[in-house]
Amino acid sequence: MSSDNRENLQRELAAEIRALQTAVDSFDYAAAERLGVNRTDLHCLDVLMQRESAAPSELGAALNLTTGSVTALLDRLDRLGYITRSPDPADRRRSVVRPTDKAVKAAEEIFGPLAQDGFRQVARYSLDELALLLDFFRTSRELQERHTERIRR
């Protein structure tokens, strides 16, 4: 492969990554709108779905929010019926936040078809190709995380 072809493919890949980021951002915006929440609230619900439960302080750290902002966010999600808050059985001074069945069902309705299509899409790749894609996305995420920390410092 000539260096011109390589450079062209790298530019095309970079353009597709940017287009993918825009498409994901648009999907998330539409999902948040459908749920009647803002993007930070949607991110919080995603964190809760991944962890199944979290303390408000853990959510604050994951979302990079202050204590007051987390409280306001949880109040909004609670009013919409998307979360429950209960005392932590191990330390009753703390609370535990969990997504409700309503939130799980809404997420499944919105994100389930996307996940199913995604699984069908990657089924055409060999194991070696899947390993390559996994490596690319993992290292790309790590790159983003490093540069996020760089600009926050």
From TrEMBL:
Tell me the domain of life: Bacteria
Family matches, as InterPro entries? HTH_MarR-typ, WH-like_DNA-bd_sf, WH_DNA-bd_sf
- SUPFAM superfamilies named in the record: Winged helix' DNA-binding domain
What SMART domains does the record tag this protein with? Answer: HTH_MARR
Q: Which UniProt keywords apply?
A: DNA-binding, Transcription, Transcription regulation
Q: Which residues form the HTH marR-type domain?
A: 6-142
Pfam families named in the record: MarR
Which PROSITE patterns has this protein been placed in? HTH_MARR_2
Q: Residues of the signal sequence? A: none
Q: Read off the Gene3D superfamilies from this record.
A: Winged helix-like DNA-binding domain superfamily/Winged helix DNA-binding domain
Q: List the protein's name.
A: MarR family transcriptional regulator
